Here is the input.
Amino acid sequence: MDRVSPEARSSMMRAIRSKGTEPEMAVRRLVHRMGYRYRLHDHSMPGRPDMVFANRRRVIFVHGCFWHQHGSDCGLTHVPRSNLDYWQPKLERNKERDAAHCKALRSAAWDVLIIWECEITKKGLERRIRRFLEK
Here is the structure.
């Protein structure tokens, strides 16, 4: 049973954005501060990567741990306890779609980096991004 009314739940879900999220903005600020420039959400590419470095043929996705189901050891990942008939297939489709987009990009000779929401505050993210962009 859901703890809030259907109207309140609908309002909460409408407020969730797909672009310009806090994790994405944190990574964008970091990458910009590092001196790299990029395009945002290229609609011509599979999955509309959050950041596209066209001259380097590299893309970065910033995934929310809940929406993209990071893993069982991540504290931000969980499956809701209510309305499982809706949530389990939805979250599984998200994971399958992510894998298909990465495969399509890699087969088109693009390198892909996925940064998870829980990794943004961890040390070493800047080094990891620099290694990815400079290889």
